[in-house]
Specification:
The complex is a heterodimer of chains A (184) and B (447).
Chain A: H1 2-19, H2 64-71, E1 75-77, H3 87-102, E2 107-113, H4 120-140, E3 148-154, H5 165-171, E4 173-179
Parallel strand pairs in A: 2-3
Antiparallel strand pairs in A: 1-4, 2-4
Chain B: E1 46-49, E2 54-55, H1 61-77, E3 81-83, H2 102-107, E4 112-122, E5 125-134, E6 139-148, H3 153-169, E7 178-185, E8 192-199, E9 206-207, E10 215-220, E11 226-231, E12 238-243, E13 249-251, E14 259-264, E15 270-277, E16 280-287, E17 293-295, E18 303-308, E19 314-319, E20 326-331, E21 338-339, E22 346-352, E23 358-365, E24 368-375, E25 383-384, E26 391-396, E27 402-408, E28 416-422, E29 428-430, E30 436-442
Parallel strand pairs in B: 1-3, 1-4, 2-4
Antiparallel strand pairs in B: 4-5, 5-6, 7-8, 7-30, 8-9, 10-11, 11-12, 12-13, 14-15, 15-16, 16-17, 18-19, 19-20, 20-21, 22-23, 23-24, 24-25, 26-27, 27-28, 28-29
Helix pairs in contact in B: 1-3
The chains are: A alpha+beta (184), B mainly beta (447).
Chain lengths: 184, 447
């Protein structure tokens, strides 16, 4: 808020500076007049310009919310009946990995999920694959497999209850649930 | 956490005194018999008359009336019978031990007549006698006496309906059986699922566990006294056994991996299921006596939803080893894997018919789901019996003639219900449940 106000005020000042028209130049008679006396106007009392550093408003570092905040998302998403990681999902997972490396006391439960357009048992098997694909990636990035648990919920834990492409795409995911000791 | 609820849901003893009422049994002639072709389905349901049973004591008056209603509802649900309105009956019997006036029953077009009476032996025991008459053949087709406690009268009614079904179709019935299922409540993104049981007609529905944790896919043992199901109470999915008579619960094996899709072998001595290792599901068998586990598949694809043939020699299962989910059959030791389904679309959740002849499955194709059946030998003769946004998970009636499945409606307010369909696909009905319900599994006929 403060920062925004400052920006706005600065912007208005800049605008008004641009808008002021230049004074017409007085005609100067050739060498007949004494040099004009230049009067220094009294300096205007100005408030010093201060740089305001915005306060950190994000979640408390090391918490579950912080994990989600710095990773961009605590889920990665998959194509229909697929469990391969795309370049984009790898980027999200790399952010998750960085957090897990920083908070080395945390463990992670990867929950594999599927959309509703499959039968219950097949979807449990598919969710297991998705969870394992993320686990494999974490291990390849140096996270100890002892910190990782996988579980499949099949189609039992949809995050969007609608029945359309958008909802199905959201529901085909692997969710990284981090558990940090103590008060998380 | 998941404590079992009492013992009230255990099957109560039913003393079936199968006493053929001698004096009145007429020798059964082979010709002119009332018979229903169950395979092709009745073009017209057979009209049957079922008057209220006779009662000789005020305590049994209500039961005598309700029993006729329960039998009528069972028979009508099969789609093979039409029970005539009691108001149209001309003859009012006051004793079932004499021949009905066939001509009067013919006048209202009844082809069969069920007459019954209840004898109250004491406050804890009643006897029920019935006779089934062929109105046009003018003979008694069946007659039995059964006994039970008064609060167990519905089972007598289902047994009588099973007798009628068997006598008129030549095949065993399925009315005296139960259904385990998952009772559902709450919004789609926060569903509560509870292990439940009810009679095949939807009566006596009750929860089997008290816990709030996720449970799925219950299935009966052949004894109908034990069920296997899936629970997440340790954090991951694991196979459990529950004795519904004693309430005793057992975590199957000591597996550190996820286990899913459990089913009993036809002899009840083994459980077949999938175990997930390094993300991949393969099929295993657990011997309940020796407590040993045998791995049956080693494929890189998903292998899930195994179901034994009724002779225990083969297993049908679901695999995506060929690229998309299809049905495969293997020998019970895991050898000789061969692909069964070749049609367009995705085939999942197979269930081998208790008759051995057919395999029911779920098929999804072009945004629709179907319950279908195909020949168990070669996968031919595929017939799709249903069509909706989401039909899945077929389970067979004990006689292999009717299939129950889950149907879920589309959208944010989508809701699951149990439906039944017969092999003709024409008799499609919603099974009554107290709330939303899914994952039905049909028991064998109760002892």
């Amino acid at each position: 808020m403060k920062l925004n106000t400052l920006i706005a005020v600065t912007f208005i000042l800049m605008l008004s500076a641009c808008a002021s028209t230049p004074e017409p130049q007085p005609k100067i008679a050739e060498n007949t007049q004494p040099a004009p006396v230049i009067e220094q106007p009294a300096p205007i009392e100005r408030a010093p310009v201060e740089t305001i550093v915005p306060e950190y408003q994000g979640p408390q570092p090391g918490t579950v919310d912080h994990f989600k905040f710095v990773s961009g998302d605590d889920r990665v998403y998959f194509g229909f009946n697929e469990y391969t990681l795309t370049a984009q999902t790898r980027e999200v997972l790399k952010s998750q990995v960085r957090w897990l490396q920083e908070y080395s006391g945390a463990i992670v439960v990867i929950g594999g999920n599927a959309d509703e357009r499959g039968t219950r048992e097949y979807n449990l098997a598919l969710g297991a694959r998705r969870a394992d694909a993320v686990k494999d990636f974490f291990v390849s990035q140096g996270i100890s497999s002892g910190r990782i648990t996988t579980v499949s919920y099949g189609k039992e834990r949809p995050i969007d209850g609608r029945s359309n492409e958008e909802a199905w795409a959201l529901n085909r995911n692997a969710h990284s649930a981090v558990l940090v000791g103590g008060n998380s | 956490m998941n404590n079992t609820i009492g013992l009230s849901k255990a099957v109560k003893p039913l003393f079936v005194l199968v006493i053929f009422l001698m004096g009145l049994i007429v020798s059964v002639g082979a010709n002119a018999q009332l018979e229903i072709d169950i395979v092709r389905g009745a073009p017209e349901p057979v009209p049957v008359a079922i008057p209220n049973f006779l009662s000789s004591h005020p305590d049994t008056d209500k039961i005598a009336k309700d029993m006729a209603s329960v039998i009528a509802a069972d028979l009508e649900r099969s789609g093979l019978f039409r029970v005539l309105d009691q108001g149209s009956y001309i003859e009012k019997q006051s004793d079932i031990n004499y021949q009905p006036r066939f001509s009067e029953w013919r006048l209202i077009n009844a082809k069969a007549l069920l007459s019954g009476q209840i004898i109250r032996e004491n406050s804890n025991r009643l006897k029920v006698e019935f006779r089934l008459w062929d109105i046009y053949g003018t003979e008694q087709l069946d007659g039995k006496r059964l006994a039970t406690t008064p609060d167990n009268w519905r089972r007598i009614a289902h047994k009588i309906a099973d007798n009628i079904y068997k006598r008129l179709t030549g095949e065993s019935g399925y009315f005296d059986s139960r259904i385990v299922y998952i009772a559902e409540s709450g919004p789609k993104t926060d569903r509560r699922k509870r292990l439940s049981i009810m009679d095949a007609d939807g009566a006596n529905a009750q929860y089997l566990l008290t816990g709030a944790g996720l449970v799925l896919t219950p299935r009966f043992s052949p004894s109908a006294q034990t069920i296997t199901y899936l629970s997440w109470e340790t954090g991951r999915s694991q196979v459990y056994l529950l004795d519904i008579e004693t309430g005793r619960r057992e975590l199957l094996g000591n597996f550190t991996n996820m286990t899913i899709a459990p089913r009993f072998s036809p002899d009840g001595e083994k459980l077949i299921f999938s175990m997930v290792k390094r993300g991949n599901s393969d099929i295993y068998v657990f011997d309940l006596r020796s407590r040993t586990t045998t791995r049956l598949t080693t494929n890189q694809g998903i292998d899930v939803s195994p179901s034994f043939s009724p002779d225990g020699r083969n297993v049908v299962f679901n695999s995506d080893r060929g690229g998309s989910p299809q049905l495969y059959i293997m020998n019970a030791d895991g050898s000789n894997v061969r692909r069964l389904s070749f049609g367009k679309g995705r085939y999942t959740a197979p269930a081998w018919s208790p008759r051995g002849d057919l395999i029911a499955f779920t098929k999804s194709n072009q945004g629709k789901f179907h319950i279908g059946v195909m020949d168990a030998n070669d996968g031919r003769g595929e017939r799709l019996l249903t069509n909706s946004y989401l039909d899945e998970g077929p389970t067979w009636s004990p006689n292999g003639r009717v299939i129950l499945f889950t149907r879920e409606t589309r959208g944010l307010n989508g809701r699951s219900a149990i439906w039944s369909v017969d092999l003709t696909g024409r008799n499609l009905q919603k099974v009554p449940t107290p709330g939303a319900a899914s994952d039905p599994a049909w028991s064998p006929i109760l002892p």
